[in-house]
Amino acid sequence: xxxxxxxxxxxxxxxxxxxxxxxxxxxxxxxxxxxxxxxxxxxxxxxxxxxxxxxxxxxxxxxxxxxxxxxxxxxxxxxxxxxxxxxxxxxxxxxxxxxxxxxxxxxxxxxxxxxxxxxxxxxxxxxxxxxxxxxxxxxxxxxxxxxxxxxxxxxxxxxxxxxxxxxxxxxxxxxxxxxxxxxxxxxxxxxxxxxxxxxxxxxxxxxxxxxxxxxxxxxxxxxxxxxxxxx
Length: 231
Hints:
Layout: H1 4-19, E1 24-33, E2 36-46, E3 51-57, H2 61-66, H3 76-79, E4 82-88, E5 102-106, E6 112-116, H4 128-151, E7 164-172, E8 179-185, E9 191-193, E10 202-204, E11 210-217, H5 218-230
């Protein structure tokens, strides 16, 4: 089962690829190389430059050490023009990274630093056209899944958002990387405590990745109070 940290870093890998002027990117891209089934954590295509970049996420040393694909002739560095390994800060040192791979480190606030530059592969074993098709397919599947999730989510469509007194937000804990909903004051609240089991880490709202789901104003409170009194 995928850990919250691994899932979180895969998303950050996509953001980083997009920042690198990648035209198309997706996670969980299925590939077939020399009769081997592989799955790239993140793959990006630059159409103008005709180049591809793969990022493989590792969140533990044991995961890194047991991954034979990184060192095989059909590994990610052989598939794409550029290949990287993304890890939490301090997990690896550049000398441990297999030849050809770059090393990306991400801190607790999702800042990405290039610790080692990759070496360009002059002859990728998979054609760019195939990589583009696979990436497009994975991106399409992700969009459809996201739309389905939206349909199943309860939203107020901003019915009580004018002059809000409180927000319902999604926030990611920088320690455990789990994402939960929190009810916070619209103004003057800087932190929340993580709801993750056994975590309780203080989340700084000005630095963590926060998304407002909906807002509540005084009218909402009055309507709710009236309903409670009528019961």
